[in-house]
Specification:
Radius of gyration of chain A: 21 Å
Order of helices and strands of chain A: EHHEHEHEHEHEHEEHEEEEEEHEE
Structural class of chain A: alpha/beta
Oligomer: homodimer
Chain lengths: 327, 327
């Protein structure tokens, strides 16, 4: 399939950049040292490529992601790195299922849903889920008393992964992980799961890293001087050209906008509307031209699209369904 | 179905508020004075309620929306208020199809795709699509020379509809519409299509108003003192409670974020992550509580969800598929 015949907006994955990212991460964090986060791509076909690269354990953010991964035969070791109050759909999965818990209620929910294994989720500084580090041991005891196997701890330094200054990232990761290590000593088990694309080579305390964005990348992580290439883009068609600006058919419903505007090579992006991006091209643009819009945040971008197109040398080599959307 | 058993996050429509909005708009702009924009809800079941309220012509932003509306039997008079370079899927629809054009290339595309009717899209001040007002007559002549029927003009004052100051909205709408009226005189035809929820009762120059958000509403339009009630919310479950903050399972992939954070009654929203909203509740919150998260922007919120739930008196009265997503 030629790119020129593709309906726009269309999510594109640059095959060379994607494979570079797989290789670069696999060399740094081989096998089970990486537990790729599927929330970044929501695509079992892409996850299968990560598994083929040696990473057989996966991180999920939703029950739907867990279900889809199990159904796709990628359920060797699935971690739902999120709290759930209704775990009933998890107990029936043909997969090894581990769930994050951070309270008596989520421990009860895991046990009631037929889940066998949990990680104690520890707040290491990001104001989100996770128990106080000093509570982790008590929660582990409670989980074991309910018949659950406690595999260890989890603690995401999400407030650190995006900091541009590497020395600061290193310092803060160390402070976060000292909390996780202390909690781990109280909890027991083999697993200390943490980290993201921005700390994948900094976080040496965790036994496994939950990076997801590395494989597709976005402009936010692009500012961090990581060895991963921008693989994701949205193909758009220029639909209108005026004297001082042009418009392409890639809007709010094709882009995650929480990290701000997307970028377009050779143009200044002015603003984005539901189905439009308005930009000032540095050179000449003609109605009908195809352009590549690079999103600021990969995860909520992918979640808008039904499929992604693997592109090599200007041709669509494969079409992957984004099959883990919804909840 | 009880709200308590609903999987979260779930898109909710308050039936009373929704029906109030339908009534209030129908009284102000009855019948064909309103051409509801389906991009705000992407739901043919909801559009059928708008049609039942007397509005039989609809505005669409994508080819997929046009297809879905035609297939649902709502194709009496469908306007694609957007430029397309590939109109082939439009020519085959069992519907009255009108397409916006603003250049020779989009006129050629409409004719080549088998579309019969067009509006000349005029730039009235919003830097997006639309020809210069002085070019509208020339483009209308070109369209007619290609065998197309030119029904009139379209010109969206999108930079005005969200301004909180009503006097300023009135003044700028007048300036925009004077451009559209002048272009209309050059173009001919009966239609002058324009306006949005923020100018629905200000824009008296247009023959029809393209408002969409009014029926569900969001917090951005909520600041404008319009007679429409907040009907849309996302039901979320509190999954984690800490000393200074709580977390619910409604994140970036359940909310349009381009207008900023959502709001939660009785709480300060701190930030939103992929599947989480972190907030500081003013009162006591318990793990497992259900809360309502109100999005800042309705359109990109709806586009993330597979279905919406019509709720009355705490029960789900109907489930509507969001069936116009994608492109």
């Amino acid at each position: 399939m030629d790119l020129a015949t593709l309906q726009t907006p269309a999510l594109l994955v640059d095959a060379d950049a994607f494979e570079h990212n797989l290789r670069a991460m696999g060399e740094s964090l081989p096998g089970s040292r990486l537990r790729p986060h599927v929330k970044a791509h929501k695509c079992t076909a892409l996850a299968a490529r990560q598994a083929a690269a040696g990473h057989n354990g996966f991180t999920c953010a939703t029950v739907r992601e867990m279900e889809g991964m199990a159904k796709a035969g990628l359920g060797d070791d699935l971690l739902l790195a999120n709290e759930v109050l209704d775990a009933r759909r998890l107990g029936d999965l043909e997969a090894r299922v581990t769930v994050a818990v951070d309270s008596p209620a989520t421990i009860e929910a895991a046990a009631a849903g037929g889940v066998n294994e949990v990680l104690i989720d520890v707040n290491v500084g990001l104001p989100r889920c996770g128990c106080a580090p000093s509570d982790a041991g008590r929660l582990a005891d409670l989980a074991r008393s309910k018949g659950l196997t406690v595999r260890g701890v989890m603690g995401y330094e999400g407030h650190v992964v995006g900091l541009p200054n590497r020395a600061l990232r290193e310092q803060l990761t160390k402070e976060c992980m000292e909390k996780l290590v202390a909690a781990h000593a109280d909890v027991g088990g083999e697993v200390a799961s943490a980290g993201g694309t921005g700390t994948y080579d900094i976080n040496t305390w965790a036994t496994e890293i939950q990076a997801g964005s590395y494989v597709l990348m976005d402009t936010a992580y692009g500012h961090l001087d990581l060895p991963f290439r921008q693989a994701l883009g949205v193909l758009a068609t220029v639909i209108s050209v005026s004297a001082d600006h042009s418009v392409a058919d890639c809007g709010l419903k094709a882009l995650g906008m929480d990290h701000g505007n997307p970028t377009i090579d050779g143009a200044d992006v002015w603003f984005v509307a539901d189905e439009h991006v308005t930009f000032a091209p540095h050179g000449r643009v003609t109605v009908g031209d195809r352009i590549r819009v690079v999103p600021a945040h990969v995860d909520p971008t992918v979640a808008y699209h039904e499929r992604m197109h693997l592109v090599r040398d200007g041709r669509v080599e494969d079409v992957w369904e984004v099959d883990l959307r919804g909840w």
